[in-house]
Design brief:
The chain is of the alpha/beta class. It has a single domain, classed as 2-enoyl-CoA Hydratase, Chain A, domain 1 (Alpha-Beta Complex), CATH 3.90.226.
Length: 247
C-alpha cells in the first residue's frame, strides 16, 4: 500500500482510496502506477471478491495533475503520448482486465482522466451533486485514458461527441443506469447516493456486490461478460490514437 492509494479490507471487499485530497486526487505517475499495482494484486488475491474505488476528501479524481505535467515539461519531459502509453493506458487496462467486479464510489467531481477511471469500472455509485466532466477541451487536450472509447459505447456517438467538444459540466441527479445516457449534460453515473451512505452502499449491496455476494458468482459473471478482455478488437486502436494525438 502506498501513501497516494490507500487500501482497506472489509471481508472480501477491498476499498482503494485515491489519497491526494489537497490536489482533488489528481493523477500523477506515482498514483497511476500505484493504482495499477493494487488492482492487479487484488485480481490475483483469492480472498478479494470485489473492489471499491473512491477518493479522499471532496473529489473522486480531478484528472491528470497538470502542475506535475507542467513541471515535467519544463524539465524537458514533454512527451504526453509516452505518458499515456506508460501510465494511463496500463492503469485503465488493469481495471478492465480485473477478474473481480470494480465499483466506482463517486464522492465528488470526476473530471478528465478521473472520469475515464470511473467509466472503466463495472458499476458507478455517485454522491448527490457529484460532477462528471469531460474536461479535456478546456485545457487544449484530446480526450484520453479511454474516455471516448467508453463514452461512445455508453451514450452513443452523438452524445459522446457533444460532451467531448463542449466540456459541459454535469451534476448527478437521476438514478437511471449508466447505459441509458446522462441527465443534464453529463454521462450517467449509475445510482445516486448521499455522501454519508455512498461507501456503505458500494460495500454492502446497493447496486454492488455485498459481502455475501462478492463471491465466485460475481467473478464468473464479470469474466464472462467480455468486459475483462482488455485486448478485444477496437480497444487497442483507440488507445493508440490517443497517445499519437496527445498534445
Amino acid at each position: 500500500m502506498s501513501d497516494v492509494v490507500l487500501s482497506s479490507r472489509d471481508g472480501p471487499v477491498l476499498t482503494l482510496t485515491l489519497n491526494r485530497p489537497e490536489a482533488l486526487n489528481a493523477l500523477t505517475r506515482e498514483t497511476t502506477q500505484a493504482l495499477r499495482t493494487e488492482v492487479e494484486t487484488a485480481g490475483r488475491d483469492p480472498e478479494v471478491g470485489a473492489i471499491v474505488l473512491t477518493g479522499a476528501g471532496r473529489a473522486f479524481c480531478a484528472g491528470a495533475d497538470l502542475k506535475d505535467a507542467n513541471a515535467r515539461a519544463l524539465a524537458g519531459d514533454n512527451d504526453l503520448g509516452a505518458d499515456l502509453r506508460t501510465n494511463y493506458t496500463p492503469m485503465i487496462r488493469a481495471i478492465r482486465a480485473c477478474p473481480k467486479p470494480v465499483i466506482a464510489a463517486l464522492n465528488g467531481t470526476a473530471a478528465g482522466a478521473g472520469l475515464s477511471l470511473a467509466l472503466a469500472c463495472d458499476l458507478r455509485l455517485a454522491a448527490a451533486g457529484a460532477q462528471l466532466i469531460v474536461i479535456f477541451v478546456r485545457v487544449g487536450l484530446v480526450p484520453d485514458a479511454g474516455s471516448l472509447f467508453f463514452l461512445t459505447r455508453m451514450l452513443g456517438l452523438s452524445k459522446a461527441t457533444e460532451l467531448a467538444i463542449t466540456g459541459a459540466r454535469g451534476v448527478r441527479r437521476s438514478t437511471r443506469p449508466v447505459d441509458a445516457g446522462g441527465d443534464g449534460a453529463s454521462p450517467s453515473a449509475g445510482r445516486r447516493t448521499t455522501p454519508d451512505v455512498r461507501l456503505d452502499q458500494a460495500r454492502d449491496g446497493t447496486g454492488a456486490p455485498s459481502r455475501s455476494r462478492a463471491n465466485a458468482g460475481t467473478r464468473i459473471t464479470t469474466a464472462g461478460s467480455g468486459r475483462g478482455d482488455a485486448r478485444r478488437p477496437g480497444s487497442d486502436p483507440r488507445f493508440s490514437r490517443e497517445a499519437e494525438t496527445g498534445l
